[in-house]
Amino acid sequence: MSGTRGIPMALLCAALALPRTAHSLLRTTQDTTAGKQVYGKWCAGCHGDNGAGDGEAARYMLPHPRDFTGAVYQIRSTASGELPTDADLLRAIDQGLPGTAMPGWKTRLSDRDRHNVLAYLKTFSTFFADTTIKPKPLQFGRAPGGGSGADALRVGRQFYDSIGCRKCHGDQGRGDGPSAPTLKDDAGRPIFAADLTQNWRFNGGGTVEDIYHRLRTGLDGTPMPSFSDLLDQKFLTDEQLWRVAQYVRSLSPGEPPAVRDVIHAPQATGPLPRSPGDSAWSRIDSYWFPLVGQVVKKTRWFDPAVSGVRVQAVHTRDSLALRVVWDDRSQSPDSAWLAHIGRVLAALASDDSAAAPAQPGLWPDQLAVQFPLTIPQGMERPYFLMGNATAPVYQWRWSSQGGAVAGLARGLERFDPLAGGGTVGAQAVYDHGEWRVALARALATADTANELQVRSGRAIPVAFFAWDGSNGEHGTRMAISTWYFLALDEPTPARVFISPVIAMALTLALGMLVVWRAQRPKEA
Amino acid sequence: MNRRLLSVIGGAVLLAVVGASAARQTAQAVQAGGTVTGKVKFTGTAPRNPAIDMSEEAACKAKYKTTPTEENVVAGPANALANVFVYVSAGVPATQKFTAPTTPVILDQDGCRYHPHVFGVMVGQPLEIKNSDPLLHNIKALAKKNRGFNVSQPNAGMTKNVTFTAPEVMVNLECNVHGWMHAYLGVRPDPFYAVTGPDGSFSIKGLPPGTYTIEAWHEKFGTQTATVTIAGTESKTANFTFAAH
C-alpha cells in the first residue's frame, strides 16, 4: 500500500502546485496562438479543428474524443455541472485517460506547450469566457485506515448495494448490471459501465482516492452521477463513502497484470480438469494476454469489448487442458443488448465502403485459440492473423451457441472445420460478467495432417481471439492478440537428481585416490 | 410555552397576509395585459407509447395496477395533445426584466417516472428535484446554454435544488438507471409560457401590447409557430395542429 499512498501525496502536491503554476503562466505567457499550433499538430486529428470532438480519427473511436465546445469534462475535482479547474484539465492532458485512446502528453510535450494548449482549448467554449464562473474544487478528506480489512470491505459492499452501484456495474463489478445495456453518453452514443475489476482502465485513475473523487464529482457527460448529495443530506457518512471506494478498489488486483510470453503448463498431479469449475484450476498459474481491435484487414474493428484473456494450462501424460477466462458484460446472444449493438454500429464508421452497412444482429460470444499446424523448428510462424491460403493455422473455435470445434483457418475470412469437429472438447460457464471456458484435447491425435501434435518440452506458438456478440462483434470484427507460447513442462526425470550425486561420489573417490597415491611412501 | 405558541401563530398569520398580498400583486401584474389561449391537437394516428418493463424495480412496479407506459405522445379526446410546451419565443423586449418566483417548481420521481413530464421554469427560479422512490435514480440534465449536471438520489426523501442561468428550450432530463425516464424543461426569462393539459388547451396571461411569436414544442412532433398581436387586455387565440407521422 505504501506505493499507492505515495500517489495521492504526489497528486496533492501537484494539485497545490499546478493551479499556481498554470495561473501565473496563463497570466504572464498565456499564448493561445502558440497553443493553437500545438493543438493543430497533436490534438486536432481526434478533437477536430474547432474542438467539437469531430477530427478525422474520431469516427473510429468509442468513446469519442472530448467535444470541447460544451466544456463538459469527466475528470474533475469540482461538483457535477461545474467547470473543471485548470489543474483538472492539465491532469487529463498530462496523464491521458486510461481505457480510452487519449494518451498522456507529459513526456511528449514541453510544459509551455501543454499550458498553451490548455489555454487554447478553453477558447472553444463560451463557458470559460464567463469569468464570473470560478470552478471551486470540492474538499476531499483522507481515506480512513483499515480499508483493505474484512470489516471495511463488508461495509463498502453493503453501501455498494444500497446506493445502487450494482444497477450498472453489476453484482461482481464487471459492468454487467441490469441497466448496462441501455447506457448512453450525452451525445447518445453507447457507453459501457466501467468494469470495476480492471482499475488500470479507469478513465480517472485506479487508486482509492481516484475512485472516491469520481464518486463525489461524477463523470460529467456519462451516466455516472455524483454521490455528493448523499453526504450533504446525511444519508451517508464520509467514511461510508470512502468504504465504497475501498471496496471498489479491492475488486481489482494490487497491480495491473503483467504480460508473460510463455504459458507454462505443469503436469497434473491428478486427472485432467475438464470443467471450468474444477478446483484444480485454483492451483495453476494464470497468464494475462491483452487483446486489441482487429484493425489490420477490412472490415476493421475499432471497439473491441474484450480487453484481455487470462489463460491457464495443464497436461497429463496424454492430454492437454486450457482454461480461458475473460470479462464480458453480456451472455450473448441477448436481445436486451440489441439496441446497444445498433448504437455501436451507428457510432463507428465502417472502413469498408464496399460492404453493406452492418445491421444489428444477435451474435454469439466466441473465442478462438490458435496454434500452428506443426511445432515450428525455428522462429518462423504462420501469419498471426489466422494464417493465409498457403500456410493455414490450426484453431479451436468456441461459441456460446455451439460448443467448440477444431479446424484450419486460412486467413480471416476462411475457417474449415475438421470432419466431425476435430477432437477438442469444451465446457463453458458464464458467471456475473465472466466467461470461463475449459478446452481439452489428446496430445496426439489420429489426424496428424490437420491437427497439431502436441509435445512436451517445446515452445508451441499460441494466439487468442475473442468476440463479444452483444457489442456487434462477428466475422472480422473482433479482438486479437499476437503470438505467445505454450510450453508443457516435463516432469523432472530422476537422473537430474541422481547424476550430481554420482558425479560428486566419483569426484570424491578420484580425489581420495590421487591423495592416497601421492601420500604413499615411495619405495626405493 | 403559550407565548411561544402565540408568536408562532402570529408569525404564520403575518406570513400568510404578506404572502397573499404579494401573490395578489403578482397576479394583478400578470393579469394586467392580454391573454393568448389556444388548443393543440394532432392529425393522424398517435404512435403507441411503449410499455415500461419495471421488473428490475419491484418498488416502482408495485405503484401501478396496469403496466405503465412511456409518455411520448399523451393524447386527449378529439386528438387533443397534452404535454406541449407553449411559449413566447419572440416579441418581449429584451430590456424588460422579470423577477423569478422564489417558490420552487417541483419535479418528483415517483414510480420510476417523472412528474411532471414537461414543464417550465424561469431563469433563476429554483427547481426542486425530489425522489419519492426507495431506490437509486440519477438525474442528468442535458443542456447547451446552461451547465448540465448529473447527480444521484439513492434514497427516498432526497431533494436537490438547482437554478438555471440562461433561457433554453428544452433542457432534457433523464435517468440512466431507468432508460425510459425522460422529462423536458423549458427555461424562460419571462413568465409567458404554459404546458397543454389533457384537453390540449393552454393559456398565457399578462402579455403587454405588442406582436409576439408563439412557439409550440412537442417532444415527438417538433415545433410550430404562430404570430399574435395584442392590443390592451384582449384575449387572442392561437391554435396549433401537429401531424403525427
Between the first and last Cα atoms of chain A, what is the distance in angstroms?
A: 79 Å
What's the number of structural domains of chain B?
2
Q: What's the average pLDDT of chain B?
A: 90
Instruction: Tell how many strands the DSSP assignment of chain B holds.
Output: 17
pLDDT < 50 stretches of chain B: 10-30
The unreliable regions of chain A are 1-28
Give me the strand/helix succession of chain B: HEHEEEEEEEEEEEEEEEE
CATH architecture of the largest domain in chain B: Sandwich
Instruction: Please compute the radius of gyration of chain A using only Cα atoms.
Output: 28 Å
Largest interface comes to:
A-B, 32 and 25 residues
N- to C-terminal separation of chain B? 67 Å
Query: What is the CATH first-level class name of the largest domain in chain B?
Result: Mainly Beta
> CATH first level of the largest domain in chain A: which class?
Mainly Beta
**Number of alpha- plus pi-helical segments of chain A:** 13
Shape of chain B: globular
| Overall pLDDT confidence of chain A | 91
Percent of residues in β-strands of chain B: 35-45%
Question: How would you summarize what this structure contains?
Answer:
By secondary structure, chain A is an alpha+beta fold. Helix content of chain A is 29%, strand content 16%.
Task: Give the helix/strand layout.
The complex is a heterodimer of chains A (524) and B (245).
Chain A: H1 2-29, H2 32-42, H3 44-47, H4 86-95, H5 111-122, H6 126-129, H7 150-162, H8 166-169, H9 208-217, H10 228-232, H11 238-250, E1 262-265, E2 287-290, E3 292-293, E4 308-315, E5 319-327, H12 338-347, E6 366-372, E7 393-399, E8 403-409, E9 415-417, E10 425-430, E11 434-442, E12 459-467, E13 479-480, E14 484-488, H13 494-519
Parallel strand pairs in A: 1-14
Antiparallel strand pairs in A: 2-4, 3-13, 4-5, 5-11, 6-7, 6-12, 7-8, 8-9, 10-11, 12-13, 12-14
Helix pairs in contact in A: 1-4, 1-5, 2-5, 7-11, 9-11
Chain B: H1 2-31, E1 34-43, H2 58-61, E2 85-90, E3 105-110, E4 113-115, E5 118-122, E6 127-131, E7 137-142, E8 149-153, E9 159-162, E10 168-174, E11 182-188, E12 193-195, E13 201-207, E14 210-218, E15 222-230, E16 235-237, E17 240-243
Parallel strand pairs in B: 1-16, 1-17, 3-6, 5-11
Antiparallel strand pairs in B: 1-13, 2-12, 2-14, 3-4, 6-9, 7-8, 7-10, 10-11, 14-15
